[in-house]
Amino acid sequence: MIGRTALDAVTQAPGEVIVATKPKILFCDLRLQPGETKMYFFNEFVPRDGPPTYRGHNIRYFYKITIATQRVKSKVQTLAVPIRVLPIPIISRPDELPVTVETNEELAPTNPFLEKREISELEISWHHLKNVTARRAPKFYRISNKRGFVGRFCLFKPAYKLGEDIVGSLDFDPGVNPRKVRCVQFSVKLQQQELSIRPQPVQNHQLQTQSSTGDDVSSINSFDMASIASGVVADNLHKSATSASSRDKEAPEPTGKLSTISTSHQVCYATLQTQVVVPIPLHVTPTFRTDLVDVRWRLHFEFVTTTLMDFGIPNPESGELKAPAEMPVETMVWNLPVTVYAANPLQIYAPNQTFNLLIK
Question: Domain of life of the organism in this record (predicted)?
Answer without folding.
Answer: Eukaryota
